[in-house]
Amino acid sequence: MIGSSKYLVGREAREIETILKQQLSSLFRNKDESFIVDYAKILEVIDSVGIKNYTLLIKNHPEDDYKTFHNLILNVKPTNELHVYLNKYMLNEEFAVAYNQGLENLETLRGRVKPKDISIGINPCDEIPPLTIINPSNPGGGDGGGFDPGDPGSGNPSDGNIGGVPIPGVGGGSNPCIVVTLTYECSCGRAYLTLSDLYGAGCGKEVEGVVYYAIPVMSYSLAATCRMESIPCFGDGNIGVVPPVKDPCIQLKSFTVMDEGNPKSTNLKDKIGEVKQFAAQNLPHEVMYNLMKDNSGNYATDNLAISATSTSAKPKTTGYFYGGLHSHGFNLYPMFSWQDVYYLKKYYDGASNQNKPEATIIVAGKECLTCENVVVYALKIDDMNAFNTKINNDLNNPRTNNFTLQQKIDDANQQFFKKFTLDMDTQDLEKLFLDNFSNAGISIYKANDELTNWEKLTLSGNPIAPVTNTPCN
Questions:
Q1: Among 67, 71, 209, 452, which residue's beta carbon has the most beta carbons within 10 A?
Q2: Alpha carbons 51 and 53: distance in angstroms, whole number
Q3: Residues 228-247: pLDDT tens digits?
Q4: pLDDT band for position 144 (50/70/90)?
Q5: 71 phi and psi, to 5 degrees?
Q6: For residues 224 and 327, what is the distance between their CA atoms, to the nearest angstrom?
């Protein structure tokens, strides 16, 4: 039973970071551990009896790849006894490929989890086989990758599930001894069995100025056939899952490939080129394609829309739409406006659950009025909680308390626009954008002139060359 769940910020986050660093320093003083802990995102889950678990993502673990990630868990019992656990998540091949392409999410997670108590000198967890992750909405064998307690032979070992494999030496029967159940907690305090139920109740959306977000939570249970007084490899209580951020380059590189006739391909390269050509004409209009993907995973766009003179093209942010590709006219700078950034949030909020990870907005604009070259940028979401916080902070300026929502959007857009000046070159504009949206949970990418690859833009800290361009591999 969940008491509360939230991502920590400020003093609370720093306190847990300090405790964990002290614990890890003691544990690994004489060991070679080559991983980095991401202290920027700490998930706290407290159960109904007061057991606290703090989960963090491990970065650069030597065993990590596209289908493997690790979480570090600080377990705090009501007696203040501390344990540190390392959970290794191993996604099966089919799910890992689909997850990284944004075709599936944690609701349908299939794979294994292997826990390790790194607080103790010996590691009994090495003797425990990988665990089945059970999706409560699909407890049977089949597609969900779960097992049927009434069918000891169910589950598919080739998919990494352990249906029918008991823990060695701890109980009889042919069912798994330990079952991991994945549920979804809303920051509003309610729990749901599926992401669909959670989002349907409003979690993940803005309600009366408050944005509620979803937290996947794991809980362990022993099968009735097992006889085991304690579980040395598992932290008590419920443990949050912090998944790795999907690499935006995977999606962006798909925009550089044309595979006409294949509906599973985005086939955007030619349309990006078309929008570039329109931007090069210095017309007082914007053009826009809204990007779509249906429930079968087929990609498409709507028809090209052309705005009225000196106005912006309007995005479509509900249904199958997940993003937009648009130009900036001669009266706008070749960089995202604040309103463009807001539209990225609208695309995410309005997209179906399976399309949310693909939320993207792309802009093409001339480098200057007399320049020939047109630059193309894309925005991706890295951290939706941080992104919501940035947008809400910009909208809830005390100066605009009496404004309508549209007036607040227009004001935030105008305040950002005032920072642009005519003498700014491309790198100046890129630095301005990065300065304004640092720690905002989004990242910006720039396409090369041939539209064959993208580069991630970050601040370098060097005043001479303030922006670092890192190509997508």
A1: 71
A2: 7
A3: 444 445 556 677 777 776 77
A4: very low
A5: -120, 145
A6: 61
- Give me the amino acid identity at 133: I
- Tokens for 387, please give them: 């992104």
Per DSSP, the three-state class of 18 is helix
CA distance 409 to 395: 7
Higher pLDDT, 336 or 184: 336
CA atoms within a 13 Å half-sphere pointing along the CA-CB vector of 342: 20
In the predicted structure, residue 437 carries a pLDDT above the cut 90: yes
H or E stretch covering 192: strand 191-192
Give dist(CA 468, CA 473) in Å, integer.
15
Residue 447 near residue 459 (C-beta atoms within 8 A): no
Nearest to 214 by CA among 183, 244, 245, 246: 183
Contact 370, 327 (CB under 8 A): no
Strand partners of residue 83: 75
What's the pLDDT band for 128 if we cut at 50, 70, 90? very low
Q: How far apart are CA 103 and CA 354, in angstroms?
A: 6
Burial class (CB in 10 A: 0-12, 13-18, 19+), 463: exposed
pLDDT of the residue at 168: 32
Q: Please choose, from the candidates 284, 270, 454, the residue with its C-alpha nearest in 3D space to the C-alpha of residue 376.
A: 454
pLDDT at position 179 over 50:
yes
Query: Can you tell me the distance from the alpha carbon of 199 to that of 177, in angstroms, rounded to the nearest whole number?
Result: 32
3-state secondary structure of 117: strand
Q: Return the higher-pLDDT residue of 42 and 204.
A: 42
pLDDT value for 56? 85
| Nearest CA-CA partner of 210 in 186, 233, 243 | 186
Residue 183 host element (H or E): strand 178-186
Q: Cα separation of 17 and 35, whole Å?
A: 16
What distance in Å separates the CA atoms of residue 22 and residue 44, rounded to the nearest whole number?
18
Angstrom distance (rounded) from CA 455 to CA 359 = 18
Please report the beta strands in 353-466, taking only residues with DSSP state E, as ranges in sequence order. Answer: 360-366, 374-381, 442-447, 454-459
In 38-96, beta strands by DSSP E = 42-47, 52-59, 68-76, 82-91
The three-class DSSP label of residue 398 is helix
Q: Which helix (H) or strand (E) holds 3?
A: strand 2-8
- Identify the CA nearest to 332 among candidates 380, 305, 368: 368
pTM for this predicted structure? 0.59
Range 352-370 burial, b when 16+ CB lie within 10 A, else e: bbbbbbbbbbbbbbbeeee
d(CA 372, CA 374): 7
- DSSP per position, 28-50: TTTS----EE-TT-EEEEEETT-
